[in-house]
Amino acid sequence: MGPITIHLYGLTFALAVFGGFFLAQRRAKIYKIKKEEIENLFLVALPTGILFARLYHVLDYFPYYKQNPSEILAVWRGGLGILGGIFGGVLGVWLYTKVKKLNFLKICDLLVPSLALGQAIGRWGNFFNQEAFGPPTNLPWKIFISSENRPAIWSEFAYFHPLFLYESILNFLNFLILISVGEKLKQYSPGKITALYFLNYGIIRFFTEFLRWDTAQIEGIKVAHILSLGFIFGGLFFLRRSGIIKGR
User: Fold this and answer.
1) Are 97 and 194 in contact (CB under 8 A)?
2) Interatomic CA distance for residues 177 and 167, integer angstroms
């Protein structure tokens, strides 16, 4: 648009943020929280989330950025690690609630459905940038990846698993689950919807990670698998502690 360039990756990210923000504002009255608090929360949590999402991505692809340090800040080309973004966003919310003396877990319960919805929308940014795809496939829903975006080991292949689409659908299902059971879990102490989010997303990321070829590993073990297991067992621990899950 004249001298202004609008990147589809950035536009998708903006839509994801707006969708999550709009949803949180609509649900604020359920938790008896003022809409103005939601605006302030996003102004704090969004920058910290983006910062840590980028940091996680750079560390994930450190060998590349070590050779190309000038591209570390080029976020318009893609590269926001959601696992880092979750940590940064939670950190921003925690800092805000500490200053404002609000119930941290209650705020998290309000925000996690927005986070799941934002993830479902934001994954389409990977489609526009031709990233976050899986191994080659001939399935009917395969997607074409241009030669410059294919890994060397699959340079002879043209069609791949749309991993971004799998995660988008699963994150949207997570969003629906959190919305539908949210009212039932409100009878328990705050934090249970948040625990359910981490349990669900941990399962989603753990299994979809098997289709990823481009994420960091330590001694042959994927870092995302380790973090996903932490999400799963953390979510199970807090749900059991609350009495929602019985037995072992």
Assistant:
1) no
2) 15
CA R_g for the chain = 19
Task: Kindly state the tokens that stand for 165.
Answer: 């689409």
Whole-angstrom distance, CA of residue 202 vs CA of residue 233 = 9
Strand partners for 143: 160
pTM over 0.90: no
Q: Scan for tokens 């319960």, then name that residue.
A: 109
Q: Under DSSP, is residue 106 helix (H, G, I), strand (E, B) or coil?
A: helix
Give the residue among 169, 90, 100, 167 at the shortest CA–CA distance from 134.
167
Q: Where are the domains of the chain?
A: 8-241
In a 13 Å sphere around the CA of 67, the CA atoms on its Cβ side amount to 3
What are residue 159's DSSP bridge partners?
144
The three-class DSSP label of residue 144 is strand
Buried b (16+ CB within 10 A) or exposed e, 77-107: ebbbbbbbbbbbbbbbbbebbeeeeeebbbb
* Inter-axis angle of helices 192-208 and 163-185, nearest 10: 160
Asked if the model's pLDDT at residue 187 lies above 70, the reply is: no
Among positive and negative, which fits the CA dihedral 176, 179, 180, 185? Answer: positive
pLDDT the model gives residue 59: 84
Could you read off the pLDDT of 119-162 as tens digits, one per residue?
Answer: 999 999 999 989 889 999 999 999 999 999 999 899 999 999 99
